[in-house]
Amino acid sequence: METDCLPISSDLHEVENSESEIPGLDSSAQNNTVSEDMGASSLVSNDIEAATQEQAASSGATSMLDLHPSVSTEKSEELSPKAAINDSNSVISSMPVPASFPSKLVLPKMAAPVVDLADDEKDQLQTLAFTRIIEAYKLIDLSGSSQVRLSLLACLGVELPSEFEPWKLLEKHILADYVNLEGHELTLRVLYRLFREIEEERDFFSSTTAASVYEIFFQTVAETLRDSFPPSDKSLSRLLLEAPSLPQSVLNLLESLCCPGNSEIADKELQHGDRVTQGLSTVWNLIMSRPPLRESCLKIALQSAVHPLEEVRMKAIRLVANRLYPLPSVSQQIEDFAKETMLSVEGAEDDVLEAQRRMSLLFALCTKKHSLFRQIFYVYKNASEAVTQAVHKHIPILVRTMGSSSELLGIISDPPEGSEKLLTQVLQTLTEGAAPSPELLLTIQRLYNSKLKDVDILIPVLPYLQSDQILSTFPQLVNLNIDKFQTVLLRIIQGPPNSSPLLSPSEVLIAIHGIDPEKDGIPLKKVTDACNACFEQRQIFTQPVIAKVLNQLVEQIPLPLLFMRTVIQAIGAFPALVEFIMEILSRLVNKQIWKYPKLWVGFLKCALLTKPQSFSVLLQLPPPQLENALNRTAALRAPLVAHASQPNIKSTLPRSILVVLGIASDPPQNSTQSQPTQDQTTETSNSEKDVQMEEKPNESSSAS
């Protein structure tokens, strides 16, 4: 302020000098003049101060030097505070200024000039601004205002006319470098801005347009993320999870990941596993985090669980069974879908793979809820061959997973009619490599004794039954087909692991001979086949075993029907047993074997096979039976006569035997006394002839 007063003092001095030269003026006049000038200067100062206070009050907290941003550069320069201050200084410099004059000056608030633009010009300016904001990302990143930029782009995109295609520009920018250009954040802001336009529903046209732009924009970005990033990348999944809404086209895109079509199977087979995993992972996250989308996403997962491609199907089944089925909100829907798909297998008559495709999901659910297994039993009884094959393929893994649970035991105790074969496989699986639980063993025994007289269900647990239980079921076991019986035979003889067998080989063979075909209702051929099966196991049914069996059977009363057949088989299998067999034949003579017509036939055949060792046994027969034997087996007469004609043997034979052999003459006898013997011999011969004709098929099979 001191420097501002220096020119005033100089001027006063000049005025004083000039006025001294004018006549009529004195010093008092000069003082008055100066006093008036100082008063005017003081008044100006007060006015300026008042204006400053008024301006400060109107602008509030705004700086006194700030100007409105809408004012143009030229106007700002014309009305700048500096120019105003300079002008004031030039005026004030001509008058005295007191020491309290302010150092700053603020002009009163002025309105910005309004410039009217045509619509085309407005659109052009908006487009240029929109484009400039898009392209200014590098500078924006340096200034730290990227969030503001993203919001501006989303808002301006809605305001711009659709013919300028602002979303195309945004798509191009976003997809150019999705990660580095904050593509996810910008995409979400755009989607949420468009979604707000849809929800506001200001008019039908605007809402429809916004919905269309929303779907196209979303789909384009999602497809690009799918094609540009590897399946392990989370960008697509994150976008679907955080978007305000998923249109149907985007859900279709997600479904194509989880359920690839035939063309994609041919073109992208190597990527299926990872792509399907990517899609199913997204489906899982959507179901858990977005309840409104739960039904749509669950439908995708279920369709993938019945996909024709096994790799796709198994991935989806693991998701549905392990993670979705335990959720109470969707478990019933999953269960109903699996049942409906299972029941539809009736249409798959000849395609095993098609049956597996439709049944795999329910099999997986059975491991989580064992009571569902009964549904498979109901389908099985009316199923085609292809369906039964598919079921049998799944059973081992399923049953091992379930174990002897209470639900499974309940199904076993009351299986649907017609499912016996399936039940047998279930029991076989439960007993493979492990002893059955006491509960399972008791359940099977009760079922066999009450509802299901099918010995097949006992086969898996035979080694774990008591010996008397096995013996009581032996007729039914022998009635099985030969392949099954051989399996049963090994199970019984080998016994359970790390335990002794319940029945020895000799006990098994004796039990077979104890079967009465008429009483037990078992065909005779089944019994003979069982004996043959035993003799085929030479390492088990050894020579000592056979000798032991024959030694016990010959003491039975009555003799077993197949005893002589077994004796003949023993000779063929073990020729060294001939001497032992002769002892057996001698014991049979003492037991009057000829009183058993069916066994008598076998006795004579055995004697023929074992000649000349059997001659000593034949000579032990009573004369009538010897004569009958020679008449029935003519091949024995000549060698037997030659044998008996030896002096050392002939001397030991009674005359009656020699007469039968024709070695000695028969003394004259009363015809009335000889008639009964002849009639008896004839009767025996006729009855045995009938037996021979009856047993001829069986004898031909036993000759081996």
TrEMBL record:
What are the boundaries of the region Disordered? 1-62, 665-704
Where composition is biased (Low complexity), the residues are 665-685
Record field: compositional bias (Polar residues): 52-62
Q: Where is the Symplekin C-terminal domain?
A: 454-632
Which InterPro entries does the record cross-reference, listed alphabetically?
A: Symplekin_C
Q: Basic and acidic residues: which segments have biased composition?
A: 686-698
Name of this chain's protein: Symplekin C-terminal domain-containing protein
What high-level taxonomic lineage is stated for the organism? Eukaryota, Viridiplantae, Streptophyta, Embryophyta, Tracheophyta
